[in-house]
UniProtKB/TrEMBL annotation:
Cross-referenced SMART domains: IG, IGc2
Keywords: Disulfide bond, Glycoprotein, Immunoglobulin domain, Membrane, Signal, Transmembrane, Transmembrane helix
GO CC terms: cell-cell junction; plasma membrane
Pfam families documented for this protein: C2-set_2 (PF08205), V-set (PF07686)
Official protein name in the record: Ig-like domain-containing protein
Lineage of the organism: Eukaryota, Metazoa, Ecdysozoa, Arthropoda, Hexapoda
One BP term from GO: cell-cell adhesion
The keyword RNA-binding belongs to this UniProt entry's keyword annotation: no
Amino acid sequence: MPDAAVAFSVTVSTLLALVTIVVADEIRDTREGETVTLKCRFSEQSAASDFSYYWARSTGNKFDNVAIKGVQLNTNYRIDFRPEQGIYDLTIMNTSYSRDNGRFECRVKASGTGADVHQEYYNLTVLTPPQPPFVEPVELRATEDEKFDLTCSSIGGSPDPTITWYRVGSEKPLKSTIAKGGSKDLRTSSTLSIVPRREDDGAKFRCVVWNRAMSEKDKLETTVTLSVNCEYHTRTSTSKFVP
C-alpha cells in the first residue's frame, strides 16, 4: 500500500477512535467567589498538532473563546492541557454571575477539515437566592362568577425560582401560568386564575418561592385573603317583578 494511503488510513482510524460526541448538557452549580472545574475528557492521542482545542462560553447574547489549546484568555481561568492523556479541563476561579453564568463548551476539532472530534457542554449556574414574593393586585376584591387573576412575583434569583400557589388547608399545587425572568435582575411571576364563588369569600391562598440557591426549609412565602363581592346577587334577589 502506498505511503500516502497508509497515512490517510491511519488518520481516518485515529479520527474514528476519537469521535465521542456528547449530546446532553451537564448541569453544574456554583456560588459567587467559588472555584469550579469543568472536565473535558477524550481518547488519548499524542499528535496534538493534528487537532485544535478550545473552550468557549455563552452568556446571554455573548459568545467568547476562553481558552485555545493550553492558553487561557481570562486571568480567572486555568487550563489543564494534556492531550496525550485525553485531558483538557477548565478551572474557573472566583466565579461571578455576570461573567460565568452560562453555557461552556469544550471542542476538539480535526485540523484541516474542521470536523468535530469531541464535544462536551456544561450549563453553569452561579446560584443566587430570589427576593421575597409579592402579590398583585394589592386589594384582592373579586366578583362572584367573574374571572380573577392573582399574580405572585419574585425579583431575581439564579436559576429562575419556582413559584407555586396553594389554597391554605391543601398541599395540592394549583395550576398557574409561569412567566420566567431569565436573569437574576428580572421578575419571575406565577398567575393564578380563579372564578370565585360566594363560599370563596375569605379564602386564603399561599404563594411559595424557591430555587436551588436555598435549602428546602428556607422557602419564601406569602399568604393573601380573597374578598368576594356578592352584591350583584343581592340586588337580584331583592328586585321587584314588574309586569
